[in-house]
Design goal:
- One of its GO terms (biological process) is double-strand break repair via homologous recombination.
- This protein folds into four domains: 35 residues; 78 residues, Aspartate Aminotransferase, domain 1; 93 residues, Arc Repressor Mutant, subunit A (Orthogonal Bundle), CATH 1.10.10; 52 residues, Herpes Virus-1 (2-Layer Sandwich), CATH 3.30.40.
- The chain is built from nine helices and ten strands.
- The protein has a three-stranded antiparallel β-sheet, with helices on both faces. The chain has a three-stranded antiparallel β-sheet with strand order 4-6-5.
- A hairpin with a 6-residue loop joins strand 2 and strand 3.
- Helix 2 packs antiparallel against helix 3 and helix 5 crosses helix 6.
- The longest helix has 40 residues.
- The chain starts with a helix and ends in a 31-residue tail after the last helix.
- Bound molecules: zinc ion (2 copies).
- The site of one zinc ion has 8 residues, from loops.
Length: 286
Amino acid sequence: MVTHETTTHTTTGSRLKEKKKQEEKEGAHCRRVTDQSRDMARQMEDSHRRFLQTMMANGIVDEQSARTLYQYCCETHNTQHTPDKLDDFIETINSKLQPMFMQVRKGMSEDNGQQFYALVNMAETDVTRMSSDYADNELELFRKTMDLIVCSENGKASSTDILNSADTLTTKKLKKSETEHLLNRLVHDRWLNEKRGEYTLSTRCIIEMEPYIRSMYQDQVKVCHICRNIAFQCQICEKPTCGIKIHNPCVARYFKGRAEPRCPACDDFWPHEIPEVRRPRSQSKR
Ligand SMILES: [Zn+2]
Ligand SMILES: [Zn+2]
């Protein structure tokens, strides 16, 4: 009797479990449908439009500015502002930008690890996106500069190397003064950063050009072991069979508070100097 009861109980139990599973499945399905209809219902409101207009004017903003702007746009247009829903807010904008091959994308500054949002033209996948502002030979030099940076160990190109490659242009040669002027413009337009005569790709450039860089430099491009984004300025594990790369800010965050730095992949001693975690103005909760 007891056995029977137990059996019945077990059977009922497993049947209940089955039913629950089924319900869960259906629940998941319902949730997906709800998500979809919510996507359909996602409407650009005035707050979204204002946010987008500012992004169009600026091209790129840091995370803190994006948060402030989000709050400002909501308050100005009397819509609900939920501080941790910035990415959802941007998703709504992106859903409307998609047919125009535009997108607001997020990326990290390789200098300080700060997050940025950039408005990206997805239709033009390479440097032709710059063709309205730069002549053909200027774009050729920018491509050569990218080659130098991507293929370098430290993600930098010296002004000397860039000037030398200006001599090898096939479109139309650039004089030294023209090259210097062009480099200043590229920095001013936020495609390159410059520090002590060395050039790096700007955050904007990395966010906008990532698909191009990944396809163009498949063999050379490095990916950060921690955040999985492409990496230029990074530290490299010295064990030859490992050789993983980590962005400097990701190094700083990863090794913070660890007694002895060891490679997250091979566990070898990490011989590089660990940079300080530089906190930008804002504090993320993480
Ligand atoms: Zn990283
Ligand atoms: Zn390693």
